[in-house]
Amino acid sequence: MPTASPAGSAEGSRLSSLRFTDPQHEPGWRHVVVPAPSGRELPAAPRPLSVEVAGAGRMHSLEEWQAATSTTSLLVLEQDRIVHESYADGLGRDTLFLGASMTKSVLAHLVGRAVTDGVLHLDDPVTSHVPELGGSGYDGPTVQDVLTMTSGVDWVEDHRDPAGPASRLLAAFGDGGDSRALLRTIGPDVAPGRRWVYNTADSQVLDWVRERATGRSYADDAALLWHDLGCTHDAVVAVDGHGAALAGGGLAATSRDWARIALLAVDGTTHDGTRVLDVGWVDAAARAAYAFTATGRLPSSITTHAGFGLHWWPLDDDGARVTADGSRGQFAAADRSTGAVVVKTSLWPYDDALADRQARDLSYLGIHTLLDQLTPQ
């Protein structure tokens, strides 16, 4: 029986293990740059955080929790100000951290803008934008279905199986292949909207639809978002041999710029109050679309600490807390009632499924503990 991958593990052990210091020279992967404007740094007001995390059968100080979950960076924002920022040795503000499946939540922001602009609708059939998928499992599902990972296609997300479809999809980004050719071979399994399966193919199809609707690549659309967010550092995104982005897991950015992604999930505005997304969109993204995707209702092999919304992970049923989630411990979480944000990047072992699961559970518990301590705006 294959081991189910944890939430956000779409990048597998190889890509998710990269931690970029010079991303354009990372061997074996082609990337394109997402340019940043000369943005404004997030304001800082450092203060001590007295935190104890209860989990894994013991109490952890903040430092012990970071060590136990192989933390590479931790950034905490309160009232739009950085109150805590720390990095593992040799890393810092200029390091580009691979977000792994946090990339999917950036994709959700891009899709939200396309919907707001009226060039994309959630009830659009996938094939109305990408007719090349006619006759595949995506001939029938709508944008809503791929956005909620309820497309019903025949897919198993198991990156510990080197011959599985998820591993073959990733291979196109390592060997210069054509990732979209694989998407055309995926067949149907169950009716759309009846079952949730963690599925990076759905994300890749969603990005293909978004690209056709907007006329912009993932990197070009992300560059517009980077400009509006006032990001201060270029990001990079992995692409296959035909230039299609790994929209399900290939974006690398600084922790401070990942924090801007989480801030946008609070109410659709930037840290200086500029509206970027419709508030109705970010509210919908932070809530489960179905009873079976509510918090605690996903397969336990994925997580018992979150649900699934519109390519974001609700941490409660009220839409108050939500996170982006990537393989091996990448999180950009927001408390929408207080405006607080926690960004945590990590590099824990992936091959041991039990160790992976314990680190993920402990990370969720620590993120909640940190958010509990932060005051409202």
Automatic annotation (TrEMBL):
Residue segments, region Disordered: 1-28
Keywords noted in UniProt: Hydrolase
GO molecular function, one term: hydrolase activity
Domain spans labelled Beta-lactamase-related: 69-358
Upper taxonomic lineage: Bacteria, Bacillati, Actinomycetota, Actinomycetes, Propionibacteriales
SUPFAM superfamilies (UniProt xref): beta-lactamase/transpeptidase-like
Pfam family, one: Beta-lactamase
Protein name: Serine hydrolase
Chain ranges passing through the membrane: none
Annotated source species: Nocardioides hwasunensis
Keyword Hydrolase appears in the UniProt entry: yes
